[in-house]
């Protein structure tokens, strides 16, 4: 069956037109860090399906957990009912974070919506009418309306949606660099807090690495200062670790690079090892207590597929696999390879910056016109990468072999050289 033709006629792809204006490749199967195209091409996976496939594809233990759960109970509503996979997952997440109260939902964006609603309810429960959020420039928190309203206004094209989108308050993001000075960003935060604190329910941010909004690595000490300021005004801190969570930055959660704990945490992507869609919002006990003991009394959200047993079982298997692997060592090794290899193109005229942390390697280009050309070069050379705008980056499974990782980094270097030769001044 020529399903590419059906796809071309009927299916939207992410951030695309219908039919797509850029190439769409048909995938037949996956295995570990390999992607098999229908046309017999085999590619090394340099994307881990947008931060999610942390153990590579088709993990046997995950498959076993999925099969077992599918036999006993694929799904059951969570209203008035509970089950073992959800309870085990809650316990796993509480153990990993030291937080207390877990809301399981279907996708990262939804967990962000729930986090924003929780913050508003918490403030309301304390008799404070606070309906605005503070967010960082270059932020990315998802594509639903509430999540979009805390994304960078330019990157996420707020102007397209006019008044339909809530207006929030944005502060300067900390300078690029894990050890860089961030005083300017703190000054801006102080200023905005002084001015608007009465309206602000929470400050939402991606700790240490801003992902889709720019792949920006910043100083974790910024979080310490920002948290102090938030506490001064009883503003909650929501940390969005949907991308960074589960070891991507060499810590289980990126905020562990700092001294703080979030009031509210969102996780997703790597939670099921890239197998099923699931995310979670986790809060301190204080927050769930304040809401539950107030006149409001309840957290008003409840997706149909909340705490889906298949996804919970898979998430539990994924966490077990991660904890029983030497992931810290593996991620450090990956970081080393990214650092030494990608830095080789740092001085290219086409390259603005190279930055790496953990399993994340980023080449930022001077210009945003090369993404399609770069992607086609990589596919041609057997590597799956998906550059966007000025960002040419890779996020790999922690289980990737050194040989495959080198294939990715070498292809990235070759791709830059190819651009240089083609677009030489
Ligand atoms: C991907 C992402 C989201 C959205 O998650 P979805 O599962 O795509 O809805 C939110 N925040 C961050 C930081 C992300 O990287």
Automatic annotation (TrEMBL):
Substrate binds at residues 50, 140, 269, 302, 386. Its cofactor is pyridoxal 5'-phosphate. GO terms for biological process: biotin biosynthetic process. Its EC number is 2.6.1.62. Keywords: Aminotransferase, Biotin biosynthesis, Cytoplasm, Pyridoxal phosphate, S-adenosyl-L-methionine, Transferase. GO terms for molecular function: adenosylmethionine-8-amino-7-oxononanoate transaminase activity; pyridoxal phosphate binding. GO terms for cellular component: cytoplasm. Pyridoxal 5'-phosphate binds at residues 108-109, 240, 303-304. It is found in: Cytoplasm. Pfam families: Aminotran_3. The modification N6-(pyridoxal phosphate)lysine is found at residue 269. Pathway: Cofactor biosynthesis; biotin biosynthesis; 7,8-diaminononanoate from 8-amino-7-oxononanoate (SAM route): step 1/1. Its main location: cytoplasm. The record marks 15 as: Participates in the substrate recognition with KAPA and in a stacking interaction with the adenine ring of SAM. It catalyses: (8S)-8-amino-7-oxononanoate + S-adenosyl-L-methionine = S-adenosyl-4-methylsulfanyl-2-oxobutanoate + (7R,8S)-7,8-diammoniononanoate. InterPro entries: Aminotrans_3, BioA, PyrdxlP-dep_Trfase, PyrdxlP-dep_Trfase_major, PyrdxlP-dep_Trfase_small. It is an enzyme of class 2 (transferase). Homodimer. Catalyzes the transfer of the alpha-amino group from S-adenosyl-L-methionine (SAM) to 7-keto-8-aminopelargonic acid (KAPA) to form 7,8-diaminopelargonic acid (DAPA). It is the only aminotransferase known to utilize SAM as an amino donor. Belongs to the class-III pyridoxal-phosphate-dependent aminotransferase family. BioA subfamily. This is Adenosylmethionine-8-amino-7-oxononanoate aminotransferase. It comes from Aliarcobacter cibarius.
């Amino acid at each position: 069956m020529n399903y590419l033709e059906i796809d071309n006629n009927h299916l939207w792809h992410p951030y695309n037109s219908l039919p797509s204006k850029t190439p769409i490749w048909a995938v037949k199967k996956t295995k570990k860090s390999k992607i098999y195209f229908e046309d017999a091409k085999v590619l090394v996976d340099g994307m881990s399906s947008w931060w999610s496939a942390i153990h590579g594809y088709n993990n046997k233990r995950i498959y076993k957990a999925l099969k077992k759960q599918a036999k006993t109970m694929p799904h059951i509503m969570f209203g008035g009912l509970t089950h073992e996979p959800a309870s085990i997952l809650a316990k796993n997440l509480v153990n990993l974070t030291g937080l207390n109260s877990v809301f399981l939902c279907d996708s990262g964006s939804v967990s962000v919506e729930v986090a924003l609603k929780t913050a508003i309810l918490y403030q309301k429960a304390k008799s404070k009418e606070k309906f605005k959020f503070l967010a960082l420039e270059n932020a990315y928190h998802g594509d639903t309306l509430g999540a979009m309203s805390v994304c960078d206004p330019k990157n996420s094209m707020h102007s397209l949606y006019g008044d339909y989108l809530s207006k929030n308050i944005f502060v300067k993001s900390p300078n690029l660099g894990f050890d860089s000075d961030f005083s300017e960003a703190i000054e801006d935060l102080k200023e905005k807090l002084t001015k608007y604190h009465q309206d602000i329910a929470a400050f939402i941010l991606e700790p240490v690495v801003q992902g889709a909004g720019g792949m920006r690595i910043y100083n974790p000490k910024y979080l310490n200062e920002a948290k102090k300021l938030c506490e001064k005004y009883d503003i909650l801190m929501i940390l969005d670790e949907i991308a960074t969570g589960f070891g991507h930055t060499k810590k289980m959660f990126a905020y562990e690079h700092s001294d703080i704990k979030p009031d509210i945490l969102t996780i997703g992507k790597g939670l099921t090892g890239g197998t099923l869609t699931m995310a979670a919002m986790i809060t301190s006990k204080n927050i769930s207590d304040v809401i539950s003991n107030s006149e409001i009394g309840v957290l008003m959200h409840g997706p149909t597929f909340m705490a889906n047993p298949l996804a919970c079982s898979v998430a539990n298997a994924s966490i077990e696999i991660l904890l029983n692997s030497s992931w810290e060592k593996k991620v450090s090794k990956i970081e080393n390879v990214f650092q030494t290899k990608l830095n080789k193109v740092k001085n290219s005229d086409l390259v603005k910056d190279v930055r790496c942390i953990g399993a994340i390697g980023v080449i930022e280009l001077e210009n945003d016109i090369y993404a399609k050309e770069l992607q086609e070069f990589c596919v041609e050379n057997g590597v799956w990468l998906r550059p966007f705008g000025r960002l040419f980056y890779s996020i790999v499974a922690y289980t990737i072999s050194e040989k495959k990782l080198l294939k990715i980094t070498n292809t990235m270097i070759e791709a830059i050289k190819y651009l240089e030769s083609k677009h030489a001044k």
